[in-house]
Write a structure and sequence with these properties.
mainly beta, OB fold (Dihydrolipoamide Acetyltransferase, E2P), 16 strands
């Protein structure tokens, strides 16, 4: 058990029966009445941001969260298969638990967040950037570069489609930001 005095960014606790992580908090001591704490937290099961106000000294139930490295193996009809790097234990995740799954390649490493008390997967996070090869893109025409922000659709080796600058050609490797699904830079070979 902990209280609101123990709040800090990243603290994980149960809120309405769901594991949540604090993203922002503020202690408020008004001139009249009791002190309270305003909190913004992320529901670790679905990623939603919640806001709540706790009275000062209110007790909260802490949750034991662990981050574990896994390697992506393959996708089948049931979902996505991953293997723990040290124990070689394999787990299967349904497609709705893997965000931006079309940006992941076989053999790539991800980080999974587990509720250690229940040994249950909460999230599967891709690395911030992945390097992918462009398998199809329309050729850029000479003179099309009047604007530096001009983009065209490109298909990656994983089947994902993202927007790339006009100077990117088929067969090139690019770095993609997995959080925004945007082109980041060319990869120098």
């Amino acid at each position: 058990m902990a209280t609101t005095a123990d709040f800090k960014n990243g603290l994980c606790f149960n809120f309405n029966g769901k594991p949540c992580s604090i993203t922002w908090f503020q202690h408020v001591k008004p001139g009249k009445g009791g002190a309270f704490v305003k909190v913004k937290m992320r529901n670790l099961e679905n990623g939603r941001i919640l806001e709540n106000t706790f009275t000062a000294g209110e007790k909260i139930d802490l949750v034991n969260i662990e981050r574990r490295p896994y390697q992506y193996l393959y996708k089948d009809d049931s979902g996505y298969n991953f293997m723990h790097n040290e124990t070689f234990e394999q787990i299967l995740l349904p497609p709705d638990m893997v965000d931006n799954a079309d940006l992941i390649k076989e053999g790539q490493y991800v980080e999974m967040m587990f509720n250690a008390d229940e040994d249950r997967v909460l999230t599967c996070e891709l690395p911030p950037f992945v390097d992918l090869e462009v398998t199809y893109v329309e050729p850029g025409l000479k003179g099309d570069t009047a604007s530096s922000s001009a983009m065209k659709p490109a298909t990656m080796e994983t089947g994902a489609e993202i927007k790339v600058p006009l100077f990117i050609n088929q067969g090139e490797k690019i770095r993609v930001d997995t959080r925004s699904r945007e082109y980041y830079e060319r990869v120098k070979s």
